[in-house]
Every structure is written in structure tokens, then in C-alpha cells.
Design goal:
Layout (H helix, E strand, L loop, with lengths): L2 E7 L2 E8 L19 H8 L2 E6 L5 E8 L10 H9 L1
Antiparallel strand pairs: 1-2, 2-4, 3-4
Length: 87
């Protein structure tokens, strides 16, 4: 079973996805006909930060975080988060 947890706190959107699969998360270039393998590519391309940790009973949790913007102005820290993503 896959579990998804979504939180918004201090101007940051964080999503955790937990699954029972033992394999490490990998960014894969999916072909047009592939029915899967796009999740990590989407995360890597759009998240300010992402990572993973092993689950307590096996499996893993992949998390990603996105700095939210307020209408008309950026949330402080957005530039720093973008720099961290590109390092």
C-alpha cells in the first residue's frame, strides 16, 4: 500500500510518499509509451528539495518540498531553496 502525506507549514509544501518497495528512488527518463517511472523525474524537475529515507519495516519514504509563493510576492527563502536544488 502506498501512503501519501501532505503538509503546509511556514510557507512550505511538503509531500511524503511511503511505499513498501525496497529499491532506491531513481530518476528515470521514461519513454512516451511507458506507463510508469515518471514520478521521480517530476519531483526532481519541480521540487525545491527532495530526499528519501528507509521505512521502519522495509520500503521507503520519498519526500519533496516546495516553497510556496504568495500572490504578488515571493516567500522569503525561495532564492535560497532554488540555489540548494541546483547544487
Amino acid at each position: 500500500m502506498v501512503k501519501v502525506r501532505v503538509r503546509v507549514m511556514d510557507g512550505l509544501l511538503r509531500v511524503d510518499v511511503t511505499d513498501p518497495e525496497p529499491g532506491l528512488p531513481r530518476v528515470v527518463a521514461a519513454s512516451d509509451t511507458d506507463e510508469g517511472h515518471r514520478g521521480m523525474a517530476i519531483v526532481a524537475a519541480s521540487a525545491d528539495r527532495w530526499g528519501w529515507h528507509p521505512g521502519p519495516g522495509g520500503g521507503k519514504t520519498v519526500w519533496w518540498a516546495q516553497v510556496l509563493e504568495r500572490r504578488g510576492s515571493a516567500v522569503p527563502g525561495r532564492d535560497e531553496a532554488a540555489k540548494a536544488r541546483n547544487e
